[in-house]
Amino acid sequence: MKQNNILYLLGSGRSGTTLLATILNSTNKVLTSGELHQFYTYFKNDSSCSCGDSVHKCTFWKKVIDDLNLPKDKIEICEKKQNNEEGHRYIPLILLGKKASPDYVISQKQLFNSITKHSKKQWILDSSKYIGRFLLLNQITGFNIKGIYVVRDVRGVINSFSKQVQTPRKPLNTIFYYLLTNFFGQLICWTNKNIIKVRYEDLVQNPNKTIETIYNNLLNSETENKTLNEEFKMPHIIGGNRLKTNKTIKIKKDNAWESIISRPKQILYYILCLPFMIINNYKI
């Protein structure tokens, strides 16, 4: 059986992870599978893959599900274990030494073994973003896991969450969420040599350089895709934002916040998130 090589996206939502994951899927060594912290929920509810088919009928996920061959009660146990062990509130406990439960370990080994079996690529990309999940997966023997910590100017994140689609958030709620996820994200990035940081703004400005950096510094390889296409086919993904319903995705810089958010509010949001804005070299 192939080794489970896992590439994991960390960071806050609305930071460009779907775009990055889709671009990486177009390269020669990475298969993007979506937000796998939702897999057992999708499995139980027979929810839709990004291709439009239910996961039980999807040409990719059907093979994974058939391999797992789990009864309904076991699926519910797997789902409950993920929900009860991966949440943000458990991050401090995990950092202090809390271990993943045996059932959790088994459920994740089964899942990644099956995905790896049906993939022709070397790395499986999990874009769950949950830092607790990254830490737990990192405990599992036989997993070679590396991370990409994705950051974005908080004002861009606030503007994206303000749209009345898919879990909108108010600005102050978004700022609290941003501070929480980036506090732990930056901490893990500083202390784990197998994580690199990618700024959304750098990705959309020079995607070729970003992908080359990921391959060279994280995957210890070179990508065969020296020049990326302008349009990328959406892979078979679990979870993800509203963009997953598109058949393709294009690289397009979203800086609408510069004109939508008033200048006083831009300054206020910047100050409220000051440490991370400075660390990540964002200008006021």
Description:
- This protein is of the alpha/beta class and 284 residues long.
- It has a single domain (4-279), classed as P-loop containing nucleotide triphosphate hydrolases (Rossmann fold, 3-Layer(aba) Sandwich).
- Helix content is 47%, strand content 14%.
- It has 14 helices and seven strands.
- It has helices at residues 17-25, 39-45, 61-68, 72-85, 91-95, 102-117, 131-137, 154-162, 171-191, 200-205, 207-217, 257-260, 263-272, 274-279; strands at 4-11, 30-34, 123-129, 143-151, 195-199, 231-233, 248-250.
- The strands form two sheets. A five-stranded parallel sheet has the order 2-3-1-4-5, with helices on both faces.
- The protein is globular and about 55 Å long.
- The N and C termini lie far apart (51 Å).
- The mean pLDDT is 93.
Keywords, separated by commas or semicolons:
284 residues, alpha/beta, Rossmann fold, five-stranded parallel sheet, two-stranded antiparallel sheet, 14 helices, 47% helix
